[in-house]
Amino acid sequence: RVRRGARRYMRAALATTARSQLARAGSRRATIGRPSRDRGATVARANDARRATRARSSSSASDAATTTTTTVGMTIERASEARYDFGARRLEETTTPTPSDIEIASAAKALPIREIAEKMCGLTEDDYEMYGRYKAKLSEKLSSTLGGREGEGDGPTCDATAGHGYYVVTAGITPTPLGEGKSTTTIGLVQAMQAHTNARAVACIRQPSMGPTFGIKGGAAGGGYSQVIPMEEMNLHLTGDIHAIGVANNLLAAAVDARVFHESTQSDEALWKRLMPQAKDGSRKFSAIMFKRLKKLGIDKTNPDDLTEEERNKFVRLDIDPERITWRRVVDMNDRFLREITVGESPTEKGKTRKTGFDITVASEIMAVLAMTTSLADMENRLGNMVVGPARDGTPVTCDDLGVTGALMALMRDAIKPTLMQTLEATPVLVHAGPFANIASGNSSIIADQIGLSMVGKGGFVVTEAGFGADIGLEKFVNLKCRKSGLKPNCAVIVATVRALKCHGGGPPVTAGKPLDHSYTTENVDMVREGMCNLVRHIENTKSFGIPVVVAINAFPTDTEAEHAVIREISLAAGAEDAVLCTHHAHGGKGAVALANAVKAACEANEDCKDFKFGYESSLDIKSKIETVAKNIYKAGGVEFSERAEEKIKLFTEQGFGDLPICMAKTQYSFSHDQSLKGAPSGFTLPIGDVRLSAGAGFLVPLVGAFPTIPGLPTRPAYYEISVDTENDQILGLS
Q1: pLDDT digits (tens, 9 = 90+) for 484-524
Q2: Bridge-based pairing state of the strands 638-641 and 578-582
Q3: Which of 93, 146, 438, 627 is least enclosed, having the fewest CB within 10 Å?
Q4: CA separation for the pair 464, 468 (Å, rounded)
């Protein structure tokens, strides 16, 4: 999306920041990604392709021919049978050295999202709601209705026989604090598939939290020439889903404290009169939400006046134990000083103080509910089942008990709808949910994946991203997301970098904001070889779930061929289907064509996903599930449970939550609990400091050690570089 002012700013910025590089390149004019055809040509070519498809409808599929196109010295096969020319917006030229992410994104010419929805995705106007010119919300109902449409549609999904596409999950090796490019690889891969091999493809990624955006990590829109646009809108507010989650979470927190306060200062009779006020005619009426509490209490009466005094007292008094309230407030920012706070300090709260704390918004259980839900009705059930803490007798007190479920649904009504965006090469992207992988479920929503698989149809590809290393994000993808959705992945892509492998091979610590040590920018094959133990374990763990692995070597300019060669050699020996060099950051989709071909081959060879399996049976007791993940995935020698964790496990088992799967919260920087243990440590004792319940999301959360659920800001946060150009209204400095 380029406005006149943005173009002026781009020219000025490049002239100032890249003068020396451009001079060495012969003072050529910098071009930041130019699509191969204009919009009119795109539409014309699409129409021609549709007519050609209809003319060939009686022909055998075996007669399909292929054409060959050469793009920047690379030969790419493209199927001539496609209804649309998905490569019409491919990038033909890129700039070297690669400009900043925000410069590339600001200079990009995005298609109107209506064109993406209808031309690329085959949707109708009833399927989406516009959020500005370049974003749209998709109806969550498409997850169950899109693949069943009859007749020839206007897009890829055209009839009930279209079927689902291939399901690919992107994970990574244990990362450095700088990140190893999983989001960038996910975007580069779908660009390669759609824009350069003319296969239907959709990326499903999470919405970024603004905590890391202004902290260390930066945004999560990808990078270089493989990113989602408009990147500034995605990285900041998008369509407001995270805000909705924060408000809903804090409404429930306010309801908990208010109920405890009112019950502690009023008699049962006073509570009854206030909760069930009389109408002018003297009658009382239950709200619809109240019938859920009545049912829980075993009261089947519908007229409030029919309740006995004992029934009224049970109905109005939740008797929440204030010392064991588990529901915490949230904020979408890295703020370490909110990790532990005291509430109720004002004199108006009459001394009803208690210790609590904040989590970052994406760690809220409501975010996990959004990621795990399959429909609006399912979300209502999950929100109602969320437990805020026990009553004094140990009974779990839920959102339904507090009567706030309907209000949360009103706040979350639009958040359940995935946001449709596009890549730099006009490949569709579904952005939905944003749970961190280290402290939450770490994957985008089930609904987005289901919609994507229906949109691409049989033979297409949905690439969904799992957060951080495969020991965290991919393990939860299998044991939580796939367990609930019933979907099975055809292939996993594990992203590796020379930088991270050197870190695991004995290199000095990598710290955000500090220059890399010389050993990371010069060839050191032995250090890479030593660090390959980390990648090998991720490959082995992924294969233990029955998922074929393709390794994506995310190339950096300081890498060498010898370093790449040792990665490929050891990856193949460890059982990877392939290990492919990728330059999608610098070249867009064409830099990931080899990866796309390797993934396609792996998917076709594993079309039935017959070997896929979970990491454990959810019927195991809580301790056994924790020990299974610790020993089989992390390679711990044993597990140590704190007294607090033991108490929680006993309580949750007694409450009937022992059959839930587990969502481990641990550092992303090591297989162990100690982020300084690099490579592939084993035999250590994994400490479990606490266990939390996410009954609505449908899992238990063991906290490894004293693991914080809200990050802090570093000495030099990313916000130092972020600003707005007041002349042309452009955001600067986002990454």
Answers
A1: 999 999 999 999 999 999 999 999 999 877 899 999 999 99
A2: unpaired
A3: 93
A4: 13
